[in-house]
Amino acid sequence: MNIYARNILDHYKNPRNRGVLKGATVSFKSLNSTCGDQIEIFLKMEGEIIKKINFDGHGCAISIAATSILSEALLEKKASEVLSLDLSAVQSLLGIEISARRHKCALIGLKAIQGALKKLEK
Amino acid sequence: MIDYRLDFPLLSRRYKKKQLIYFDNAATSPKPEVVIKAVLKYYNFQGANIRRGPNFLAEDATKSFDEARIAVANFIKAKKEEIIFTSGATAGFNFIARTWAEKNLKKGDVVALSIAEHHANIVPWLQLKKKIGIVIKYIELDENYNFSASSLAEIFKDKRLKILSLTQASNVLGYYYDLKDIIKQARSLGVLTIIDAAQSIAHKPLDVKELGADIVIFSAHKMFAPSGVGVLYLRPEILKNLEPFFGGGGMIEEVEEQSFTTTDIPFRFEAGTPNIEGVIGLGAACKYLEKISWKKIEARELEITRYLLSLLDNYPFLNLLGGRDEKKRLPLFSFSFSKIHPHDVADLLGEEAIISRSGHHCAEPLHRYLKIGASLRLSLAFYNTKEEIDSFFKAMEKIKKILS
User: What is the chain B residue with the closest CA to A11?
Assistant: First the structure.
């Protein structure tokens, strides 16, 4: 299936939870230097549980869509659970196989979320 | 009209039933059959190491290698002793930074680059800055994307300017810089000049004597030859006082337990077994281009450049980086977009069998200077056609619809 499938384009064109989150527990910026992409994640936590995810920044369709999808899918999840997610989790959320050349795009949002959670751990 | 695409086996590949359109020559170019055959001939019939074995096989291999060096020297109007084979342009810059520059520069001395340089001509200087504290200055661009005259004048005023290392053509803007006067001025001030010809070498004839630079650097793989080979041309006056960087076999005259003496130029700079087949392939590529002739190559490239530029006004969402002066550019075109991301465009172009590149093309300072995140680059060569350009624009219409 084409990686520019309808649900991906929908999330790209109408990203959910985009914009700075005021009163966030933690924020973290992830860069993809080869594309000049930048995603900043804002998390609102209640103890171990993620209550709200917002993101800001710019990126390609795959990176924006993947982050948008994660911002909905990871709500009410435990930090430890999210820290153990990898590419395969993102792939199953996107519903398509991501070729190697787009792995970085698909992962930029997850890396930012995990970066924010690791920052909290410290 | 001769279809030069037929010379390149790669270009006959199809993807999703579509004919491959290769617009990524600035990243690496396809190899013509004559180059592949030259490499195969070495593998199948010669195969020996060079300048080592006392037998016919080693002699054949050595002969092929030495002939290739002569072909490369002729190609840039140099003498064969003035050419050092490296592993690529990047190795060339690192070599100069770590030998000539590290020996002759002191803390506070200035190395001037242009803001349009490739990382290969930036990072080795940054490493040297870290090591010995040199100062790196950048020449800015004017409104036509040429090197700014006032910026250049400012740099030349600096009493501590020791090295001027400039690209002959930007791998993002496609601008082809006329460097002769700049080089002349640098020479009169005793400033070492290094020219990055990695992008220009496959598009314009290079006469190193006429150019007048102390050092010229380029890679083989961007001029239809194998990867893993580069050329470092040095003016004899520079070459004779240069220390070798790599030590090992092939570069020595005599080795004792506590000392060694080096062999002749250029071999003393080529320690270890070189990329023999790569150099042989490069020699074949030089002969291939010379056989077609620069006159034809330049005429073809001007024609496709003119054609692409003439169609751009119909596609206002493609913001061309660099000027539109067809005489001052290579057939290399980068675009930024306001609403769509170059990475998506390049991916979807690939689905149309059109090979392009997105990103900052190893020129991050330039992208920051131009205030853009990333760009889409099409880099054509003499074999590309107007029909291929038509296919690109048709694909772009389709992609724009998908992404917006």
Answer: B403
